[in-house]
Design goal:
By secondary structure, the protein is an alpha+beta fold. The protein is built from seven helices and nine strands. A six-stranded antiparallel β-barrel has the order 1-2-5-4-3-7.
Length: 202
């Protein structure tokens, strides 16, 4: 893990709608020593939700939501916006970027890996960060074999309209990361493209 990878924290868990569906509030200015860049929490990014010192949940960023309580407010402001930074800093904190995370597995103590629904959920305020390259490799490779058993979990989420795009993005990224498995991942991409075009019509 490089120093940069160790330092960048995306945000914290603020809610969950199920055992695998979480919402992370992205840290903004003043909330972290090094606020994340938009590329750190882009769609399809692999992320880690830290459970404790020895274990983490592995997830994928599956959506982005912007929270702006000021939208639609037509009343006059008591202070200009630049004055609010000094006199009412909490007012600005009400605007937030939220990202939806789907948990697809876990990495436990001694680098043990589980793909699929983890047994233990993440706590509120758990820190969220990008998964490092080494962790992505550890999560997906079992010796010379590529592990993708979490795909069945994602394929079952048919109510999510972004899921076909997310699955295609995963297959593309993994083929770039693991060129030795590019042929198998190309077959997977074709199957996913077929599912997204044929199944909705049926």
């Amino acid at each position: 893990m490089t120093e940069k990878e160790a330092a960048v924290i995306i945000g914290k868990i603020v809610s969950a709608s199920s055992h695998v569906d979480y919402v992370c509030q992205v840290y903004g200015e003043g909330e972290a020593a090094q606020p994340p860049a938009p590329s750190d929490y882009g769609f399809g990014s692999f992320v880690a939700i830290q459970q404790d010192a020895d274990s983490l949940l592995v997830g994928l960023i599956a959506n982005t939501m912007l929270l702006n309580p000021d939208f639609g407010s037509l009343g006059p402001r008591l202070s200009p916006e630049h004055d609010l930074e000094v006199f009412s800093p909490d007012y600005l904190a009400e605007q937030a970027t939220l990202v939806a995370i789907i948990v697809i597995g876990a990495i436990g103590s001694e680098a043990s890996v589980q793909q699929g629904v983890p047994a233990v959920a993440a706590p509120i305020d758990a820190p969220v960060r990008r998964l490092t390259d080494d962790e992505i490799e550890r999560f997906h490779l079992d010796g010379a074999n590529l592990r993708l058993s979490y795909l069945s979990l994602l394929l079952g989420m048919t109510a999510n309209p972004l899921m076909p795009t997310l699955l295609q993005q995963i297959a593309t990224e993994l083929s770039e990361r693991f060129p030795q498995h590019a042929a198998a991942l190309a077959v997977l991409r074709r199957n996913l493209a077929w599912r997204s075009s044929v199944l909705p019509a049926g």
